[in-house]
Amino acid sequence: MSQSNYDVIIIGGGVLGCMTARELSRFHLKTALLEKNPDICAEVTKANTAIIYPGYDSKPGSLKAKLCVNGNKNMEALCKELSVPFKHCGSLMVAAGPKGEEKLRKKLKAGKENSVPGIKLISGEEARLLEPALSDKITLALYAETTATLDPWALGIAAAENAAANGVDIYTSTEVTGIINTATDHSIQQDSPDDSKPDESKPNDSIPDDLKKESYSYKITTKTGASYTAQNVVCTAGLYSDTLTSMICNNPYKIVPQRADFIVLDPSLEGFLSHILFCESEDKGKSVSLVPAIDGPILIGSSKIDASGDKESRPSSEEGLRELAEEARDFLPDIPLDLCIRTFTGLRPNPYYIDSEKSINDFIITEAPDSPGFIYLMGIKTPGLSCAGEIAKHVTELAKNRIGVISERTDFDPSKKTGIGINNLPEETIFNEASETEASETAASTEKPTISLSRDSIFNDDILTDDKNRESGKIINGNIVCRCRKVTEKEIIEAIHRMPCPPTLDGIKRRTGTCMGRCQGGYCTQRILEIVKAETDIDLSDIEWDRDGSWIVR
What we know:
Structural class: alpha+beta
CATH class of the largest domain: Alpha Beta
Largest sheet: 9 strands, mixed
Radius of gyration: 24 Å
Number of domains: 3
Oligomer: single chain
Number of strands: 24
Distance between the termini: 32 Å
CATH superfamily of the largest domain: FAD/NAD(P)-binding domain
Strand content: 15-25%
């Protein structure tokens, strides 16, 4: 089978891997990203509260605190570069008793030590002026003006597209099965004894000085049969970072998965909640969070349910959902939970020391002590999304220190062009008025020039706008396929041809917002499948929902 050689290979295509790929693409390096799923951002990234935290929750002096505060500061500019919607809405952490109030005071102190701007304690009355739906029992709130929200999928996908446009190779459906250090011509099995005990107070210890200058290379084998070599490897594999790292070194850490349930309320509630709300319970500390999402719905999350070591299945928990509903109603008595349109479950990658079973509260971002050039990330959970851009910079600096002098590209383009959507359609778009009830939702076909895209056009923005690529056709700017989110046929076709894989239904959803409204795909799913078949010649029975084997029509 084929073998490809790179300067740096990133394993794992979540938001952290994609952001790291983009950051590395600033330099004269041959870089690749390997993702086991058919699409990127399909694991930990796709299930979180979408919050950009201010930084008062992190222990002062920790790597997590530093990256979170800087990440919050720089995220809006990053989103602007990548055309990712971003909303500065501020947050309230509310308490309803003395225990909660004391925790808020401690968080205010930590926030000031972390140099978090715009934080202050306000009374319950002041909090209700900002959020009238808050319970009368709220006595104190910690206000943070810099808290924000965004779409995690949009950020990761935009970073990947920008990285690819700047020369990074992205391989999906490419599961890593082995990593070999070619300098020693062996790999270390996962159950190898750990001869050197790590300093548990310093999970980010760097590589020993006497190994830094040695030349190492890594061979990566995959389930597809293809293999890759690289001087440097960055492991951002989330739930499986421990498994992959144990292939190459004596890894002292393990990932213990924890399930997280979420509730999504109907977008018609836009305006019910203006700020992100964190609730500090008297009996168990920080409980539910409520987020006025970037596109209208209210997101409620998240529970903490033992996954019993299972890193694959994500069933919703009746216990977790009931707990979320009760906690939300406790702080917002009038919240209309009957307007729930969806529940879903994700997995947190909680890090632990293998020997002591002690949990780790900081990010682990380090080089393997006995394998220079192998950089691994573990336990990047909340506030990992907030820190994504800063983590990418941090990892890139580690890689640069290992590689030596590398020049920055003068032709690096940090921006990603915005696709065509309902809010930026050409002025000449003609909508159908076939019926009075559907006039604002449906459009009929009309003869217009369109864009013909091939599989070679993946991640290529120019092909979407260059006149020489326009050929005759009947793709209509105003032909709305998804009524709930007003997604056009053209947006769906554009998304199909931007995906780094045979398109999946969830991949289209992550790029366009289809199947995320009130009907959850009840109206548009069949039409989307027909468009995929027409654009790719993939049989309906072979189109997958998301992960390998998730066929829709079989």
